[in-house]
């Protein structure tokens, strides 16, 4: 059996779940083993959503000590489930939550864990391709384990064949044996984004670094993001200085994103930042330094002071938008925003047009 740990947000499958389930389907075909999803929390219409991904069974982990999001009891519960159902492999999204839960499960079960997998072939030994160095290189590796525990990157399931026709999902509750010693951490507060589109899935991200100069300087970036239907991101300098929350940070120790357009304002493009934005389709750098790595790698660049360039861009966009109010409603990623189309038509100042579209 191939177990796929799926995360949910407010009753909806989280972004990475579709990729995890796609990789699980590939392994299922290769090993002739069924796929079962594993989830914690309220059932909601999760079975219906999972049925659309070719999943026939859902194990719902149930225990009062699983409430509150602590990864340790979840990992312990998962290890017990692996043993109880005789799983061949357990997959989770390559997120902080997915990695924490699988790391704990691996430690409990005495199994190795392979993170950042982009491809898997059945074993043992299991043949893996993994991202290393923040995604800057790929490694071919073998995992010699009776049960493969792997986290899979967002694009890992891209080549999988579509899910078969929607199937009915049988739900089984699994009640693990847990005690208080299993709960080392607990969630004491959750902060919801007031509005707007999330960083990880935004089609446009307007990001600022040291060059923005202050927390107040981000007002212009917020306005540009709102006009383009996007989100605001930042470099670690901005979070270290307390200008932006860590949830806005792009990079190795922040969020990895792949928007259609990434606008990097006053960001040098250090490797730890670059690995977080290098999958953007188009990168526009605004920077005073023509030699900054972000400028030399960007699709387009404007060499100038962000405090002069952004107001000019905003004035032009406002003029082009006329009486149109910026829409607070997030657009689906596939639909290019009208203002982005205008940008492609040459609206934004462009310093270096030599770059090709990145994908
Ligand atoms: P700087 O490198 O100081 O660059 C500022 C840029 O702004 C320069 O290119 C400059 O020419 C330009 N500039 C200055 N003034 C203006 C102006 N008025 N107008 C236009 N341009 C201007 N960093 C991350 O971002 N994300 C991470 O996840 C991350 N993880 C890390 C993990 C580790 C283990 C380590 C060691 C570091 C990590 N870092 C991360 C930090 C990273 O190495 C860099 O220090 C950081 O990205 C630099 O941020 P910056 O580009 O804003 O600042």
Strand content: 15-25%
Give the CA-CA distance, first to last residue: 36 Å
Major beta sheet summary = 9 strands, mixed
Annotated CATH architecture of the largest domain: 3-Layer(aba) Sandwich
Shape: elongated
User: Regions with pLDDT < 50 over 5+ consecutive residues?
Assistant: 327-359
Q: Given this structure, which CATH class of the largest domain is correct?
A: Alpha Beta
Ligands bound, unique: flavin-adenine dinucleotide
Domain count, please report it. Answer: 2
Number of strands: 16
Describe this structure in words.
The chain has helices at residues 17-31, 46-51, 71-85, 96-109, 218-227, 236-240, 271-277, 293-297, 306-321, 338-344, and strands spanning 2-5, 8-9, 12-13, 35-40, 57-61, 89-93, 113-121, 126-132, 137-143, 148-152, 170-174, 204-208, 231-234, 261-265, 282-287, 300-303. It is α/β, with parallel strands linked by helices and 359 residues long. Strands 9-8-7-10-6-1-4-5-11 form a 9-stranded mixed beta sheet, with helices on both faces. Strands 13-12-14-15-16 form a 5-stranded parallel beta sheet. Helix content is 28%, strand content 23%. It has 2 domains: 2-182, Rossmann fold, CATH 3.40.50; 204-354, 3-Layer(aba) Sandwich (Rossmann fold). The protein has 10 helices and 16 strands. A hairpin with a 4-residue loop joins strand 7 and strand 8. Residues 209-211, 235-237, 249-254, 266-268, 270, 272-273, 276, 286-289, 292, 305-307 line the site of flavin-adenine dinucleotide (FAD).
């Amino acid at each position: 059996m191939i177990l796929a740990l799926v995360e949910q947000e407010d009753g909806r499958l989280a972004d990475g779940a579709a990729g995890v389930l796609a990789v699980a389907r590939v392994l299922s075909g290769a090993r002739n083993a069924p796929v079962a999803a594993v989830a914690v929390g309220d059932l909601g219409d999760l079975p219906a959503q999972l049925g659309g991904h070719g999943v026939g069974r859902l194990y719902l982990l149930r225990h009062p000590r699983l409430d509150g999001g602590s990864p340790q009891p979840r990992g312990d519960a998962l290890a017990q489930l692996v043993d109880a159902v005789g799983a061949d492999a357990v997959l989770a999204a390559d997120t902080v939550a997915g990695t924490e839960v699988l790391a704990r499960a691996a430690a409990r079960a005495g199994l190795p864990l392979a993170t950042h997998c982009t491809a898997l072939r059945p074993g043992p030994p299991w043949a893996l391709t993994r991202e290393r160095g923040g995604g800057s290189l790929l490694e071919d590796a073998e995992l010699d384990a009776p049960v493969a525990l792997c986290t899979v990157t967002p694009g890992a399931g891209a080549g999988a064949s579509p899910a078969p026709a929607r199937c009915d999902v049988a739900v089984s509750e699994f009640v693990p044996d847990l005690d208080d010693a299993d709960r080392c951490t607990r969630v004491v507060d959750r902060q919801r984004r007031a509005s707007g589109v999330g960083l990880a899935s935004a089609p446009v991200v307007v990001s600022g670094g040291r060059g923005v100069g202050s927390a107040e300087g981000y007002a212009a970036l917020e306005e540009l993001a709102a006009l383009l239907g996007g989100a605001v991101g930042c470099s670690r300098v901005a979070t270290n200085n307390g200008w932006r929350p860590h949830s806005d940070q792009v990079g190795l120790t922040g969020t990895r994103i792949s928007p259609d357009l990434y606008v990097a304002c006053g960001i040098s493009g250090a490797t730890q930042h670059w690995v977080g934005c290098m999958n953007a389709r188009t990168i526009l750098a605004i920077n005073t330094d023509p030699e900054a790595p972000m400028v030399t790698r960007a699709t387009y660049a404007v060499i100038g002071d962000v405090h002069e360039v952004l107001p000019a861009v905003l004035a032009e966009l406002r003029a082009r938008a006329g009486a149109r109010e910026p829409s607070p409603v997030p657009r689906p990623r596939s639909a290019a925003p009208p203002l982005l189309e205008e940008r492609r038509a040459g609206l934004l100042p462009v310093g270096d047009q030599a770059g090709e579209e990145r994908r």
